[in-house]
Amino acid sequence: MSETRQSTGWNLLLPKISRQNKVLGSTYNAPCNYWIDVKIESLIISNDFITMKTKPGNFIKYAHCTDTVYYQFILKVIAIFFIGLVLIPVLAFSILDKEKTENKFKTEFRFKNYYDEAGNRKPNPEPQQIYGPVYSVGPLTVCAYLVKTELGLIMFDAGYDKDGSLIPDNIRKLGMNPKDVKKIFITHWHGDHSSGSARLSDISDTDILIHKDDLDIVKERVFTKDYMVPAKDRIVPLEDGEIFNFGDVQVKVIHTPGQTPGEVVYLLTVSGPQGKCHALVAGDATAMKSTVEEIEPNKFHGIVQAYEKTVGILKSLEFDLYLGGHPHQVFKEMREDGNPFVTREQWHRMVDNRNQQKIDFLVKHPEYINY
């Protein structure tokens, strides 16, 4: 029983064969490592052999091989086919992703090293536009972002309280008024990101927004000074998935616990010179504390399981502009040049590396696995 399968136009490799092959009417024994490139016109399959009829003008007219070789051949073709299905889209996506982020969006802003070539600590940077309505207004080692919208100014993280009037002054240097800040979004309760919000909230008389799971902690452990008491009443809890619209700017809240129980990232949609851009205000969501000294004051029930879920969430996010919690997240872990427009590959590499730090920590300290 035979069947003919039309495969016109396919270029295939005939695998190595040890039996005799009928080539242009003569007998030819193929070496064990020999491959023959054929363009198939038809494929005839029977119980004993297969016959491949090639396109006219090709070197090979007919080729015969046993069932065993036939199945090896088919398996190799299938394997090559499926490898191609996987590799081609991955390579294409990688090239397009890199081209999209590096060629489409332009910025003069760079996240810079904290020390000069002589090893001296640099001063706090001047405020600077990053892209479109997004500005950097924070101190040297901690990031704080100002976004200008149709409905007023909004802030993301507010640095240290010890920096005093640094952020309000930086807003003024940009020709804007800190009194026009309408919302202060906080990524997590740690003092280097949240404590400066009390002072800014007093100036602007506006709400401080933080995830509900970090709300009590920030009140009890950060807002401890007398002049911070009024700001406690302006702290508003956030829920996962909330969306805020400020006219031309949209903000989405995504709960990413691990660093703290209420850590969040904010996914923004903004417009700039090269068009609409998706920005991720990431805080410190990419890392779980990975030393005993750091994790003890920050641990919470289910911390490991929460962070493992967060890793999956972070890797699923699609964005163009990375606005992290600290400059070194870019210049040390993703792009040496400090450019905030990162590729998906660079983003995944940082998340994977930080997840590996967690894994290494748990190998040394398994007592935290089921905390």
UniProtKB/TrEMBL annotation:
Signal peptide positions (record): none
Superkingdom of the source species: Bacteria
Keyword Oxidoreductase set for record: no
SUPFAM superfamilies: Metallo-hydrolase/oxidoreductase (SSF56281)
InterPro entries: Metallo-B-lactamas (IPR001279), NDM-1-like (IPR050855), RibonucZ/Hydroxyglut_hydro (IPR036866)
Keywords of this entry: Hydrolase, Membrane, Transmembrane, Transmembrane helix
Metallo-beta-lactamase domain mapped to chain residues: 141-326
GO molecular function: hydrolase activity
Segments traversing the membrane: 73-96
Classification via Pfam families: Lactamase_B
PANTHER family in UniProt: METALLO-BETA-LACTAMASE DOMAIN-CONTAINING (PTHR42951)
Name by which UniProt lists this protein: MBL fold metallo-hydrolase
